[in-house]
Amino acid sequence: MRAPVGNFDSATPAPEVLDRLVGPVAEAVRDWAGPVPADQLLYVETDPEKADTAVFVETYGDDLRDASANCVVVAAKQGGERRLAACLVLPTTRADVNGVVRRHLGARKVSFAPMDTAVSETGMEYGGITPLGLPASWPVLVDAAVAARPWVLIGSGARRGKLIVPGKALAGLPGAAVLEGLGVPLG
């Protein structure tokens, strides 16, 4: 099957390649009950050495600059308690952690979670963290611009491989909140 975005050799429905996904992501795909059929969650092979956004876009297609989303893990602190959440933003933006995220989570302070925390808490590889398969208690904050895309390239839980999913599938994830202005332009 041809991928709906990017220049990939092929795209395979994720339920057919569960063995290529890390445990929590495979479980999320296996138990999928989202707003689109599970076979619309597509898996594509990628070279982990070409994961940097600029190199990735050069390798796999210029259209991915506007058809991708980065998933970042944040730590919110309020009253001595720490909660983790995920933010999904376009690669041309950064998550507004001190504004939109902090207000939405009702936190005193929000910062990017340390890499070892993000990896250990998600069960995924750094650079491949995806909103599919995150712990059920986590809020998943999705920028409205991401949710509005017909197709979005996201991580697969590992650095090798990506998922391409409809934007509305991301808006329908457990714990998801679609927020205007979550992603602010870089620069």
UniProtKB/TrEMBL annotation:
It holds the Pfam family tRNA_edit. InterPro entries: YbaK/aa-tRNA-synt-asso_dom_sf, YbaK/aa-tRNA-synth-assoc-dom. SUPFAM superfamilies: YbaK/ProRS associated domain. It comes from the Bacteria. Residues 52-170 form the YbaK/aminoacyl-tRNA synthetase-associated domain. This is YbaK/EbsC family protein. It comes from Streptomyces albiaxialis.
